[in-house]
Amino acid sequence: MKKMIIGFLFVYGITFGQEPLELKLSDAVSYALEHKADAAKARLDITNADAQISEVRAKALPNLSANAGTTYNALLQENILPGEIFGAPGESIAVAFGRKWNSTANAQLSQTIFNQAVFVGLKAAKSTKEFYKLNAQLTNEEIIEKVAVAYYQVFQSKQILENLQNNLELTERTVGIVKGLYENGLAKKIDYDRSMVALNNLKSNKQQAINAVELSENALKFMIGMSISQEIRLPQQNFQPEFLPGIELEFSSRTELELLNKQIELLNFQKKSTLAEYYPSVSLVANYGWLGQGDVVPLWNGKNEGAFWSDFSAIGLNISIPIFNGGATRAKVKQNQVEIEKAEEDLQETELALQLAYENAISQLENSFISIQTQELNVELAQKVLEDTQNNYELGLATLNEMLDVERELADAKNSLTNARLDYKLAEVELLKSQGKLDTLNENNL
């Protein structure tokens, strides 16, 4: 129901050009999982796995077929028989068997009684579906990670734009102060010109920041599969840390490991399927049909017209026993075993890499937390220094260079704080990913 409502709102906004659509992180993730091509293809793989299971199962079920045909024998084959049969001792007589027209109708039933490869294939097909389910889950996790990163980058670009706007307002006030002092003969023309240069540079930087916001929003819309023309608005957030250093965090099993384990299981099934070539196979075959012969087409003629029909039936048991194929099966088994061992090496390497990513995520989280605290203090100090410098400049105790430098330092401190908060949110995403809990972002109300 929630997805239907979200989808309706998206379509409504696109169609009627209403107010920009407010997009929470959970909404963005839900929309991406519903509309992104990678997620759709992963779901189609699961559907395709059901078809594969049905295909393998069909090999173990009865197989019924029917066929019919009519043949015109332009020249009947002659067989040489001894003349004694016809009362002509010592002679050989050529006799043509059959009739000019033959018609057949036949139905055949076959049933596999024992085929090790079929039985192994059924188990492998079911395991293949589980593999595709895990692959779909991993695909969703990758989509969630990309959406979260793109979502937070929009916040970063908007915060940088806000910082520039604040700095622009400060510089505009500075220009006003310098202009007043210049007009009253208390400042030089060069000071006024330099302040205007600083103001114009900030205006240019603001336009670049506006473009950066638009680009980041378009990247987010592409990432979730939304129309680029749809306007969006992200809700206000303070980006306060949610995970504090010192809290015990657990490393749980990851989808990547489950996927590799399932791959190893499939490779073992492949090996068993190859070994099945050593086993005999048994099948039952039964057929029943009608044969019509005559000098006229039997299909629509009967005995009165010279066409004769008779039925026939046969039941057989086929047993195939492999004896020697030049060692081909043995060679294939060795190849299967090599693939299994390679997959096991990949599993060990992946386990090590995931543990490393988990430890690095915790370290990055702690470092970003410390950086946020430091940059918040720097912003407070820079703000205080700016206020003192402005007062001193008006009293003639500070130069214009000092005031412009302080304004830049405040802007740099704010941007550093913005970057530190973004780094922290990205570290949160990495930590949730390393814990296999990225799906909680979809459940979050952000």
Automatic annotation (TrEMBL):
<keyword id="KW-0472">Membrane</keyword>
<keyword id="KW-0998">Cell outer membrane</keyword>
<dbReference type="InterPro" id="IPR051906">
    <property type="entry name" value="TolC-like"/>
</dbReference>
<dbReference type="GO" id="GO:1990281">
    <property type="term" value="C:efflux pump complex"/>
</dbReference>
<dbReference type="GO" id="GO:0015288">
    <property type="term" value="F:porin activity"/>
</dbReference>
<keyword id="KW-0175">Coiled coil</keyword>
<feature type="coiled-coil region">
    <location>
        <begin position="333"/>
        <end position="430"/>
    </location>
</feature>
<protein>
    <submittedName>
        <fullName>Outer membrane protein TolC</fullName>
    </submittedName>
</protein>
<keyword id="KW-0812">Transmembrane</keyword>
<dbReference type="GO" id="GO:0015562">
    <property type="term" value="F:efflux transmembrane transporter activity"/>
</dbReference>
<comment type="similarity">
    <text>Belongs to the outer membrane factor (OMF) (TC 1.B.17) family.</text>
</comment>
<dbReference type="GO" id="GO:0009279">
    <property type="term" value="C:cell outer membrane"/>
</dbReference>
<keyword id="KW-0813">Transport</keyword>
<dbReference type="InterPro" id="IPR003423">
    <property type="entry name" value="OMP_efflux"/>
</dbReference>
<keyword id="KW-1134">Transmembrane beta strand</keyword>
<dbReference type="Pfam" id="PF02321">
    <property type="entry name" value="OEP"/>
</dbReference>
